[in-house]
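Lab manual, section 2.4: Encoding a predicted structure.

Procedure: take the sequence of the chain (262 residues), apply the prediction step described in section 2.3, and record the output as structure tokens. A sample record is shown.
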Amino acid sequence: MIIELITALVIARILATVLAFWAIGAMFDRVGKRLLPIACGLLLSVAMTHLLPEGLLQADIFWAGLLMLVVVLSFVLLELIGTALARRPGEQMQTRPEVRSLLTGMSLHGFADGLVLAGAFVTDSHLGWFAAFAILLHEVPQQAGAAALYRGAGYSRHKTLICLLLPTLFAAIGAATGAVTMLQPFLLPYVLIVSGTSFVYMTMRSFLPHIIAQTTTGRDVVLTLLLLIVGMAAGVALSQQEHEHAHLHAHESAEVSLPLEQ
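Recorded output:
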């Protein structure tokens, strides 16, 4: 079961990465920075309408809030250390703080995807492959948004591809962890909270200020706002679809368990 689980996860995420990388690679040189507001809107809306609400719904509120504070403090510390190193004579940072934040958030989200898929495969093999297909569908726009942000940060196509594929390793670790521990229910909501908080912090702290600083005309203001809304709308639609699917699955599970209890 573990081999089938990891195979399904790797296929889904790598295929999503290839599709997203191809789309961004084909468009970036032509539309370039216009993709960045869409990517920011997408990541913000996915975090605020899916990752954080799902995590907070299942987690202890106090510990969830404390964890969010720890995540923010950790990123602030990361930026302080990065800034201090960058200011040393003769030294230059090879990785921008916002890129490290994005990579961390994507890796944590990959770990959460692995846990979710493990739960599906533990329940039923067919359900597991259906969940893998769902991961493929929601990873394509998310990976495309991340690819646009990596390219916007000055990364080459080769380095961008490596950053997109790295979270797949964490997804496989999450899948293996979930399968071995039979998906301990207390883990997933906190992983979702850390991932969602990372996306919000990274977008609001680093990428949006960069986009706003480059907005100089009235036409740029309108276009940037519209593109940001487009990205948010795409993320909301994606989160709504995931929400409805989760409720449907919960309802079906309740109907199956009811006769057993009787």
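Check your result against the sample. The chain has one domain: 2-246.
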